[in-house]
Amino acid sequence: MSSFANRPTLDLPDDDKIRLLPPKFLVLGDEVSKNQLDEYGASVQAIGAYGDPVYIGRSELSEIVVKNDPYASRIHCRIRRINGKYYLKDINSTNGTIVEGTEMIEADEIPLQHGDLIIIGTSGYVMLDLGKLAPREEKTRLVKRFNLA
To answer: pTM value?
Structure first.
């Protein structure tokens, strides 16, 4: 596992930097198979298992709770399914939501794709559609991309 000092950073307007926590994996689907759990560990969750919409934030009322991250809002963003695709919307969060390096504008609702990195505070979430590649091959690619090894 790489050291915390080697993790990617977020540049803040006043030139401060905060280190990102290792990303968790969110499966674009209704369930996580035993093979996916074995391959990705406890950090993988299926978005569809929570119902629709899915809220992400620090609040215990969120379906996906961001723990120990003061940069995340209580209700930070929402993921919902429209015609079989998943869409993300920032819910007026204090520090914004970043998808693939681009900060979302509150009015935007953008489609999520396999491999997208969502940053909420210092927490990262990688979107997985494991039908795209064999799980072992895909995990190797993601580990390299997000400097997890």
So the answer is: 0.74
How many whole angstroms separate alpha carbon 98 and alpha carbon 148? 19
Specify which residues 78 forms β-bridges with. 55, 89
44: its two tokens:
């993988």
User: Which tokens in the block code for residue 46?
Assistant: 């299926």
**How many other C-beta atoms are found inside a 10 Å radius of the C-beta of residue 16?**
9
Tokens at residue 96, please? 């914004």
pLDDT digit string (tens) for the chain, length 149 residues: 333 334 444 444 444 555 566 677 787 777 666 666 666 665 677 777 778 899 999 999 999 898 888 999 999 999 998 998 889 999 989 999 999 888 887 778 999 988 888 989 888 888 877 666 556 666 677 667 766 54
Query: β-pairing, 77-82 with 85-90?
Result: antiparallel
| DSSP H or E segment with residue 80 | strand 77-82
Cβ burial of 137 (10 Å; 0-12, 13-18, 19+) is exposed
